[in-house]
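Hey, quick one: can you model this chain's 3D structure?
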Amino acid sequence: MRKLLCFGVLLFAAWAADRPDLTGTWVLDVSHSPSAGSKVKAETLAISQKTDAVEITEDTTEGNGKSVKVDIACNTEAQGCKIKENGQATEVSFWYNGPILVMMEQRHGNDFVTQKKLKPSDDGKTMSMEVVYIAPPGHKPESYTFTRQLLAGH
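Sure thing. Here's the predicted structure for all 154 residues.
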């Protein structure tokens, strides 16, 4: 029994070590995100990771100056969670693919489907976000770079 317990603890530690540390506040680095173009003037992601869930607050200022704030909270077991975004029902799911947090968004059923892959740099100071448009087809993937904001005094 003791060996089984030790094995379980080691297995959990290895599994947890594979997950990225994304908790914190991340600000879009427009100068290193050519895909942002005129679509986004500013974007901040406040991410809170739990053992089996993720909470993200997206605060975006679009190119036309419109401000949009979206709160997302969902488990990390690839099970869909319903959220309201711009008054529309959206289904979101999260899961880990090694050191990457994957977020799938489905709008209007499956008419608009995007996949976002969040991966921190080795030093944890920046995070890359790759956005892949699954439906409708024909859009090129986009890449964004975010910078982790340090708390005052750190």
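One thing worth noting: Confidence is low (pLDDT under 50) at residues 1-16.
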